Amino acid sequence: MRFSAQPAIAWLLQVTRLSLLPVRVRGGVADGARWTLFPWTSYWRGTHEPRLQAAIVALGGGSVAGWSCWDLGAHFGLYSIGLARRVGPSGQVAAFEPNPASAARLRRHARMNRLPWLRIYEAAASDRSGSSEMYTYGDLGATTTHLAYEGEMRQAVCEPIPIRTVRLDELTASGELRTPDFVKVDVEGHAHRAILGMIGTLRKRHPILVIAIHSAVEWEGVRESLEPLGYAWTPLDSGCAAPWIGQDLLCVPRPR
């Protein structure tokens, strides 16, 4: 009988504070940032989503000092932390993460890196402000917790938890947040709702967007919102075609 040490090590890291040991991010968008050891070591090793990281590093010709950036679906904050370090104290980053376990780790990483211009919202960006439910399927540690998909039935197995939703147009209208220069959207099938909730801001500012597509419904909703605003999109992974499921789209306003 063969014994694998990997599951045992993973269990040990999960049940002790060893998972919170500080490390440094070795490359990518958050290169040099302080991080925690476990889980998702690909984050601090710099190997997570290399095309997306490269696209974000290239924003502004490699310099985004002073920019305002939003991270919708921030998880542990790899992109939020990286962007905040890059925009500097004259910039602003807003991170939105409704999963309480992920938001707690995000806040820890923000404290570790001393980034007061990074604002964290334990909420989901949506087309209305209020409350909703997140389906967890019993695993808050997963990256796939989500608001209900179209047609997804609420069942006990979903193990839903209550969450807050925010309409981003309200935050810019009130002056709580600056209008963004860049927005990353990775919200597990809810991007079309998040886009509707900031459509006024997009119409006013036309920021660069990167949107992760998880379903045909999500893609159609995103397309219907962005086309009238003059956006064009390109998949970061070449050779793909609509409805772009599983792809990240770089969306930029066409020259006027």
Describe this structure as you would to a colleague.
Strand 4 (92-96), helix 5 (100-113) and strand 5 (118-121) form a beta-alpha-beta unit. By secondary structure, this protein is of the alpha/beta class. The chain is globular, with a radius of gyration of 18 Å. The protein has a domain at 49-126 and 168-253: Vaccinia Virus protein VP39 (Rossmann fold), CATH 3.40.50. It has helices at residues 5-15, 41-45, 50-57, 78-87, 100-113, 168-173, 191-196, 199-205, 216-226; strands at residues 22-24, 34-36, 68-72, 92-96, 118-121, 124-125, 130-135, 146-147, 161-166, 182-185, 208-212, 231-235, 248-253. 30% of the residues lie in helices and 22% in strands. The strands form three sheets. It has a seven-stranded mixed sheet, with helices on one face. Strands 6-9-7-8 form a four-stranded mixed sheet.
